[in-house]
Amino acid sequence: MPKASKKEKNAGLQNREKQNNNHPTVKPIKLMSYLITMGSREGDIVLDPFCGSGTTLLAARFLGRKFIGIDIEEKYYEIAHERLKNVSGRLPKPEPLASGKIQRLSDFKSFELQSQGGPILNGSVLSKLPAIIGKILNNPSTVPTEIDGFKITGHKKQNLEQKKEPDNVQDWADKGINISRGCSNDCRYCYAREESVRRHGNTVENWPKEELNPKIISKGWRISSKRLMFPSTHDITPGTYDACETVLKKLLKAGNKLLVVSKPRPDLIEKLCDAIAPYKSQVMFRFTITAMDNNVLGFWEPNAPPYEDRKKALVVVKEKGFRNSVSIEPMLDSPNVGDLIEDLRPHTTDCMWVGPMKMVKKRVVNDSPQVEKEIVKIISDQTHVKLLPIYMKYKDDPMIKWKGHYRKLLRKLRVEIPPQKDDWRDRVPE
């Protein structure tokens, strides 16, 4: 990461007699922001007992954290105080990584150090190895890099790009369309909530409030060649239903085929089926049904419908002549997922996607002993060893599909599941 620019270091110091930040080791805000994000959540307190000119504290403020800064040098305290007093704003979005560029040591199978018959491996060579490996990481090449009479070569893992699994959305769609910032179901593991808090300045407390986006609701739509999913970051709830129906009608009238995804409420789904009945040949419903046990559902998905309602919605859609499918992701009750599959099978016309919970500790707010207990349980229930018997039981079942994280975990046991990109449009009749 590049060093802090002069402009960044001196921002906010215009009113000082000495307008420059003369601290000898000013860190870039982007670097400290990354570290803060990795180690804290919005509202937490960040302590920097050697805060220097205050970069860590600025990053904490930008990311919605509280902070305490301490420094032994009064002159640096004064610089930090001026920067904090005068600099405000939000952090820019990080730029995407260059396609195909190797960024991690784990992308390499090994590094080979070859002697040219002369010097021994001494301290001088060892001290330079991290810099040499860094160059190889940023500029992968099969050509050895020479260092003091030695040659070092990085051996890249085979088919690196092929091994990378798509994320949850990419399995099913090329584009997600959403009309709400927030979701009243307020699922504890929600990836969209975590991302909204981390990247877009939202808060955990505000997420259930469902702020509708009038620009998306009033927008006109054209037909797209992409696989479209609606919605992808929230559900169809009483608070969003009218807007969802409006946008769905526009998308379907334009000729699009749609994957409609939600934790379903049967009354809303029946109403929606009647509203879009002329377009039933363009729609595939995919309902998230993650467990049969309502105690489990009530903990992880506190405001979402109970199991019986979700199953009823699946039945309603089938009776109305629409195609339907199921998402059992995340499996909230892995030991009983077989019973869930068999109970839903008679009412499912297309397929069921099975997947574990991703990034549990990152996405779930651990704020009580009960939450801690449930986190431990869900992690222990979805280890690759425990996922294997489920896969072996259903691996030849044409109705069962495996989400990317499931495939990734089973690779630890050398079980290769082919990529399962779902072009459900081919299975929606013309």
Plain-language structure description:
- This protein is α/β, with parallel strands linked by helices and 430 residues long.
- The protein has 18 helices and 14 strands.
- It has a 7-stranded parallel β-sheet. It has a 3-stranded antiparallel β-sheet with strand order 3-5-4, with helices on one face. It has a two-stranded parallel sheet with strand order 1-2.
- Strand 4 (145-147) and strand 5 (150-156) form a beta hairpin.
- Helix 11 runs parallel beside helix 13 (307-319).
- The radius of gyration is 26 Å and the shape is globular.
- 33% of the residues are buried.
Q: What is this entry, summarized?
A:
With 430 residues, the chain is of the alpha/beta class.
Number of helices: 18
Q: Report the structural category.
A: alpha/beta
Give the CATH level 1 class of the largest domain: Alpha Beta
Measured as a percent range, the helix fraction is 25-40%
Strand order of the largest sheet: 6-9-10-11-12-13-14
Largest sheet: 7 strands, parallel
Q: Please state the second-level CATH architecture of the largest domain.
A: Alpha-Beta Horseshoe
